[in-house]
Write a structure and sequence with these properties.
By secondary structure, the protein is mainly alpha-helical. The chain has 7 helices and no strands. Helix 4 runs antiparallel to helix 6. The chain is globular.
């Protein structure tokens, strides 16, 4: 194992903390999963989410890049995280929290890939650039 120190934007760090707490895993494990090369994830849900992005046009990639989690799901995840601060989650709640976190992870991965492809094609819309700044 090699020690690496990373400087993360505050919002990324806070998201990693939320995921680590919700899934009761070390933050390091969460971040490693985010940066693990695709070759090591073959056959995963992540591969399925990324399939076909390369063939999408600029408008489709932009829609993915600006997509967000449904407010209802975000609210529920916040509720579950709040409950976890107060008490041990039930098995059903724990599974729900894990599912919601995994869905958020997959959305983030899909958005990141869409942004990467837009940048690679020199096709980043100005309004998207301002959102990312």
């Amino acid at each position: 194992m090699t020690l690496v120190t990373l400087e993360l934007p505050q919002r990324i760090y806070q998201k990693a903390i939320r995921i680590a707490r919700a899934t009761k895993r070390p933050i390091e494990q969460v971040v490693v999963e985010w940066i693990r090369p695709p070759v090591e994830r073959t056959g995963s849900a992540q591969d399925a989410v990324l399939t076909g992005l390369e063939s999408m046009n600029t408008a489709q990639l932009t829609q993915i890049a600006i997509s967000t989690t449904a407010p209802k799901e975000m609210l529920r995840l916040r509720e579950l995280l709040g409950l976890q601060e107060q008490r041990e989650l039930t098995e059903v709640e724990r599974r729900e929290a894990t599912r919601l976190v995994e869905e958020e992870d997959l959305l983030t991965l899909r958005k990141a890939k869409a942004i990467y492809l837009l940048r690679q094609r020199n096709a980043m819309p100005d309004d998207l650039i301002s959102l990312l700044s």
